[in-house]
Amino acid sequence: MVMRIGDLASEAGITTRALRFYESQGLITAQRAPNGYREYDEADLRLVREIQALQSIGFSLDDTRPFVDCLRAGHDTGDSCAESIDAYERKLADIDACLGVLSARRAQVADKLERARARLAAGCPTTTTSTTEQEH
Amino acid sequence: MVMRIGDLASEAGITTRALRFYESQGLITAQRAPNGYREYDEADLRLVREIQALQSIGFSLDDTRPFVDCLRAGHDTGDSCAESIDAYERKLADIDACLGVLSARRAQVADKLERARARLAAGCPTTTTSTTEQEH
DNA sequence: GCTTGCCCTGACGTGAGCGTCAAGGTCTAC
DNA sequence: GTAGACCTTGACGCTCACGTCAGGGCAAGC
Fold first, then answer.
1. Which sign does the torsion angle of CA B17, B20, B24, B27 carry?
2. If DSSP codes are grouped into helix, strand and coil, which group holds residue B125?
3. Are the CB atoms for A63 and A91 separated by under 8 Å?
C-alpha cells in the first residue's frame, strides 16, 4: 500500500510539513517516485504513530529516536529495545525533576499569595508615608 | 546614589544586556546623563530585584509587569496591589494545570516502562518472524 | 597621544517544532 | 488546454530572554 505524503499525513492526522520535518531530522525516510514524489508504506505509518504517541506524553522528537530506531530494526514495538527502556527512565527522571521544581514553585507562590492577602485584609498601609501625615 | 548600568548590573547579579532588555520591554526606565549613559537609583535596584525574584519562581517577564507597576506606583511591595494578587492566582492556576499534565504523563510513562520491562523479562519475542522458523 | 574600561545602538543567533508563504513542477479531469 | 489538486525545495516567522558580536563614543590615567 503505497502512499504519498498527503495520504500519510491524513492517515496520521498530521501535516505534510511535519512529515518533511521528521525526514529532515532523520526520523523517517521515504522512497521516491520517478517524478520526485515521496512514497510511504504502513511501516512508515507505524513510525509516525509511534512518534505522535511519544510526543503526546512529553517526548521531544529527539527523545523518540531510540523508539523509531527500534521499530526500524524490525521489532514489534518501539520499546522492545534497551535504548528505549533507558529513554523511558530518563524521561521519568526528567518529569520527576520537573515535578519537584514545580511543586516548590507552587509552594512559594501560594505562600506569597497568602501573605499578600493577609496584609491586604489586615489593612496594612502599602506606602510608607509618615504616619503623622496620614493622621492629619 | 546614582548608578550606571554596570553598577546596577553587578548589584543585581545580572548582565547589562538583561537590563537593557528589561528597558526595551518597558519594565524599567532610566534617566540619562548628558553623555547618554543610563542612570539608576535604589528604586530601580528594587524593581530589578523584584523581577529577579519573580522570575526565579516561574514568572515570565511579562508576568512581572503588575508587580513592577505596583512598586512604581509607590507601594512598599510589588504585591500590594490587586493586579499582583490576580497574577499570583493566575500563576498558581498555571502551575496546577502544569502539575496535572505532568502527573498524567508521569503515570503514562511509568506504565509504559513497566510493561516494556515485563515483556523483556518474560522473554517475549520482539520480532514477529514465524515461530516454526524460530524453532528450526 | 594612547590604552583601558566603560558606555551606546543595532542586529543577528539560540532552541523546538513546525506554520506559512513563494515559486514552481506534475498529474488528472473536463 | 486549462483548472485544480497534488507535489517539490527553500526560506522566513513564531516564542522567550537574553548572548554575542559589530562598530563606535566617552572619560580617565600614563
1. positive
2. coil
3. yes
- Whether B96 contacts A105, CB under 8 Å: no
* CATH-assigned architecture of domain B5-123: Orthogonal Bundle (1.10)
Residues in chain A: 136
ipTM: 0.83
Pair B45, B8: CB distance under 8 Å: yes
> Exposed, middle or buried, A78 (CB in 10 Å: 0-12/13-18/19+)?
buried
Could you report how far apart the first and last alpha carbons of chain B are, in Å?
88
For domain A5-122, give the CATH number. 1.10.1660.10
Structural domain boundaries in chain A: 5-122
State pLDDT tens for residues A75-112: 999 999 999 999 999 999 999 999 999 999 999 999 99
> Is any Cβ of chain B less than 8 angstroms from the Cβ of A89?
yes
Contact positions of strand C to protein Cβ (< 7 A): 6-9, 16-20, 26-27
